[in-house]
Amino acid sequence: QSVLTQPPSVSAAPGQKVTISCSGSSSNIGNNYVSWYQHLPGTAPKLLIYDNNKRPSGIPDRFSGSKSGTSATLGITGLQTGDEADYYCGTWHSSLSDLWVFGGGTKLTVL
Amino acid sequence: EVQLVESGGGLVQPGGSLRLSCAASGFTFSSYPMNWVRQPPGKGLEWISYISSSSGTITYADSVKGRFTISRDNAKNSLDLQMNSLTAEDTAVYYCVRTRYSSGIHPDYWGQGTLVTVSS
């Protein structure tokens, strides 16, 4: 079971908007920055969002991130079929045994 | 262009050992902390090890502590993961991942991964 909780799946139609939640605790999200990754099977995961809401160069502004308390959210607008992938949140976890933790992943289906 | 290329994966028997390598290019390798992250079949991502840019700080997930050893050679732009006492639960795609410091710290670039299968 992952330290960060994400919904297993979300779906929406092309052109629509979707949000993916990531819930944690004060040991991780509550006191650290969150990043988000897109993963298509067989490829290298790609960084979409870092420092809660910043986009790396080349990531379209259709992707956005936010954080409130111990939860974070990834938003995707103007959905495209190419957005169909697994999405993971991640953050630093302050404990003796863990350093970086990921959510369990959310499968996005573009209907 | 940042490139991370893993190698060394394959089929190994339970209890066996395997050494993974990651060749880095396109950036100043010695300036960045690095990680290994794995993904078991059908499951999510699991961070397993971190090494600072100078190798001064090394950490492991509990699931691999005492069995896996991370190391790097900044002169050769390479990152290694020595895996011992392997079990079926170690079967996964293993990714070499760069870490970047910003306001926080986050993994940014990932390799394509190398598959490790532990089976008799």
Explain what this protein looks like in three dimensions.
The complex is a heterodimer of chains A (111) and B (120). By secondary structure, chain A is mainly β. Chain A is 0% helix and 43% strand. In chain A, strands 1, 3, 4, 7, 8 and 9 form a six-stranded mixed beta sheet that branches. Chain B has strands at residues 3-7, 10-12, 18-25, 34-39, 46-51, 58-60, 68-73, 78-83, 92-101, 105-110, 114-118. Chain B has 120 residues and is mostly beta strands. The mean pLDDT of chain B is 96. In chain B, a hairpin with a 6-residue loop joins strand 5 (46-51) and strand 6. Chain B has no helices and eleven strands. The A-B interface holds A 2, 32-33, 35, 37, 39, 43-47, 50-51, 54, 56, 86, 88, 90, 92, 97-105 and B 4, 35, 37, 44-47, 50, 59, 61-62, 65, 95, 100, 102-113.
Summarize the structure.
The complex is a heterodimer of chains A (111) and B (120). Chain A has 111 residues and is mostly beta strands.
Defining key terms:
heterodimer; A: 111 residues; mainly beta; 43% strand; B: 120 residues; 7-stranded mixed beta sheet; globular
Largest sheet of chain B: 7 strands, mixed
Radius of gyration of chain A: 13 Å
Percent of residues in helices of chain A = under 10%
Q: Could you give the order of the helices and strands of chain B?
A: EEEEEEEEEEE
Mean pLDDT of chain B: 96
Question: How much of the sequence of chain B is in beta strands?
Answer: over 45%
Structural classification of chain A: mainly beta
What's the helix-strand series of chain A?
Answer: EEEEEEEEE
Global outline of chain A: globular
What is the SS-derived class of chain B? Answer: mainly beta
User: What characterizes the major β-sheet of chain A?
Assistant: 6 strands, mixed
* Strand count of chain A: 9
Distance between the termini of chain B: 39 Å
Portion of residues in beta strands of chain A equals 35-45%
Protein chain pair with the most extensive contact, residues per chain: A-B, 28 and 26 residues
Averaged pLDDT of chain A: 94
Shape descriptor of chain B reads: globular
